[in-house]
Design brief:
This protein is mainly alpha-helical. It has five helices and no strands. The two termini are 23 Å apart.
Length: 167
């Protein structure tokens, strides 16, 4: 959750040559356990910090959105009988409340409860690789990680269209 506001702060900081890289490395070290070696005093990291901010911000926003959506799906489906629109006669698993709750609770609630940590783990792996590549000394696999991050952000943006229309 901190990645989005910190990313918004770091984008203008990176553009003016501020300590955006140091802030992002500290955030990754503190919350992701990622050790990104400082590239050194003489290293030119300004453009890399800007690139990280530009690529990382949409990815962080998508991670926050996906996390919020997935956890909301868990709560909504596990608490199906408490929903005001929870008419079981027209619901999947209906016409009884027990059948509708079983389908929603197990299909939507428990399955998303089990899958959400793995999906979020995927986001953190990509975020960690971007921090190491752009803001650290290890550039191994940076192009691949950047490609995956951009593709992931695009896929999430495309998949968000039907979700938004559902609201």
């Amino acid at each position: 959750m901190l990645a989005v506001p910190v990313g918004v702060l770091c984008l203008p900081l990176a553009l003016v040559g501020g300590p955006a890289g140091r802030i992002q490395r500290g955030l990754a070290r503190r919350f992701l356990g990622v050790e990104a070696a400082d590239p050194g005093r003489g290293a030119r990291t300004g453009l890399l910090a800007v690139a990280h901010a530009v690529i990382g911000l949409p990815l962080n926003l998508m991670a926050l959105t996906v996390s919020g959506y997935f956890w909301t799906v868990v709560v909504i489906n596990l608490a199906y009988p408490l929903r005001p629109d929870g008419d079981p006669s027209q619901a999947w698993g209906g016409p009884t409340m027990a059948g509708a709750w079983a389908v929603h609770g197990i299909g939507g609630g428990v399955s998303f409860l089990l899958i959400t940590p793995w999906v979020m783990r995927g986001f953190t792996v990509i975020q960690a690789r971007l921090v190491k590549g752009f803001l650290g000394a290890d550039r191994t696999g940076l192009l691949k990680a950047t490609s995956i991050a951009v593709a992931l952000a695009l896929v999430c943006a495309i998949l968000s269209i039907p979700v938004i229309h559902q609201l």
